[in-house]
Structure of Putative outer membrane starch-binding protein:
Amino acid sequence: MKINKLYIAIVLSAGLTLHSCKDSKFLDVPSKENVEAEDSGTVYTPEQFVNGVYGMFTDWDYAFSFLGITEMISDNADKGSSATDSGGDKLLLDNLTYTSTAGSFQSMWARWYKSIGRATRAIEYTESYGLTDEAYKNRLIGEARFLRALNYFYLVRGWGDVPIQERDYIKREPAAEVYAHIEADLQFAIDNLPIKSAYAAKDLGRATKGAAQGLLSKVYLYQSKWQQAADLAKTVINSGGYGLESDYAKIWRLEGENGPESLFEWQARGSSIAHGIKQYSQVQAPRGGAVALGWGFNIPSQNLLDAFNAEKDDIRRDATIIFRGETLYDGRLIDSGVENPMYNEKAYSSANGGAEHTDKNVRYLRLGEIYLILAEAANELGNSNEALDALNIIRTRVKLPKITTTDQAQLRQLIWKERRLELAFEHDRWFDLVRTKQAKAAMTGNGKTFQDKMLLFPIPENQRIQTPEMPQNPGW
């Protein structure tokens, strides 16, 4: 994929009025945020270039295509909306009948590579700009390398062997090489980023040392590098910089944004509905009825509801699922006239009211997952007591009985189940199913026909037309 022109986000020095707990001024942008850098005649600072990488998370792609290939494709979610609305390719993704022409794959493939290109340009620009404050320069580069790693992590989990854009636009590097590239970026970030509490209020939401450590722990988990995953998870847990939110439901409310449990979030623009994460809440909000908040896509599946109920996991169920006829925590009634019986509560914004741009941050990585990374890695290393301690901290929060088995195979299954219930609708379920080799059984159990070729996404057909020498994934 060749990106001919670089587009950067112009960042206003004085922008929207922001809520005190969302003082992310570094993300404020004007309505016309894209300029061609080579034509603008304006000199931008390295920080503005880095800010432009963060801005990539607020695009429409994350409100629809992203949901399709991370949630609707899995056993956690169904397409939703109305029966007559296919949502483009969303019904195909839900039914596992998609092909390489599915637009959601094309959109996210392009989005992630454009984000990587923007991050690389920010790194190069910062390195050559002439900053004399070495720590500040390396911090900005560390932020960009963290963000670049995050985008590569999506690509390698979805497609396996992919081009490393800084080396070649077409040649697909082995997944192991891509992971090594991710690890190097994250290690630089760890070495050069400040801890969360060291940032000024205006910089809340930037990448931190803890975020890089947590993400690298997860990257190790996906490669079955158990010792490294466990070590970094413990580093984050023992750092003193993070703590579990005592009330699970509050994590996704305004009061929980950038809270003690949060390692990294995609920041919305502010408490006013102006330019946020475009339509993320609206697309998933209850459809129809008197409340009429949104489009009603990406709804919880009966399979997920059954999993919550089988575990008697009422707290996480009720924090994850909006039910038809329910009165929400803010007093809003989801009346009986809405089109679907369930909706995704983790995407709900109390202030949004159906507006196009949401004020809601997307929680990307949090301490609850770090405990589960430690539990899984420790169990694979044969440290069942350490695994149980980490697992039961998560279960105790939601008032579930402690797990006691030390049988490695049994505990492995229980940890995987815990990941599903704890992290539902946090955009990892499909990747977890593939990683743990549960995809075929899980999707068959959900009434879908899973084919082995689906272990990897198809290279988008438009990409293959542009670069026919790029090989397709097997079976596609």
Remarks:
- The first strand starts at residue 7 and ends at 9.
- The chain has one domain: 7-270+365-449.
- The domain at 7-270+365-449 is CATH 1.25.40.390 (Serine Threonine Protein Phosphatase 5, Tetratricopeptide repeat).
